[in-house]
Design a protein that fits this description.
The chain has three helices and four strands. By secondary structure, it is of the alpha+beta class. The chain has a single domain, classed as 2-Layer Sandwich (Alpha-Beta Plaits). The longest helix is centred in the middle third of the chain and has 17 residues, at 51-67. The chain is globular and about 50 Å long.
């Protein structure tokens, strides 16, 4: 079973309002964990083999940002668990786009 997750990491109390350098570090960790991911303007979609795999990567992200000096960190995670069939990030996007095309024709 593939596990899809949407992760949003929000550093709080940093010296600047920009968070892209922290997000970049988080994405590097997802990449090094071998997880498929898609960055969006408001979070990152992740495809993994298990909830544990996502949790371990998020734990590494939290530790890395702590070491970088982030005094507080908010993390939102949503999971999409589909038991009736195998789904992927690509599948979900293709499914949506096929429906959008049907509506626009």
């Amino acid at each position: 079973m593939r596990v899809l997750a949407f992760i949003r990491v929000v550093p709080v109390g940093t010296e600047t309002a920009s968070i892209s350098s922290y997000v970049a570090e988080a994405v590097k960790i997802l990449e090094s964990a071998g997880l498929k991911y898609e960055v969006t303007p408001f979070g990152t979609a992740v495809e993994a083999g298990s909830i544990r795999e996502v949790a371990e990567a998020v734990e590494r992200v939290a530790e890395r940002l702590r070491v970088m000096g982030v005094p507080r960190l908010l993390i939102d995670i949503s999971f999409d668990l589909r038991y009736d069939k195998e789904i992927t990030l690509d599948y979900k996007v293709r499914s949506l786009l096929s429906k959008v095309e049907k509506v626009s024709t």
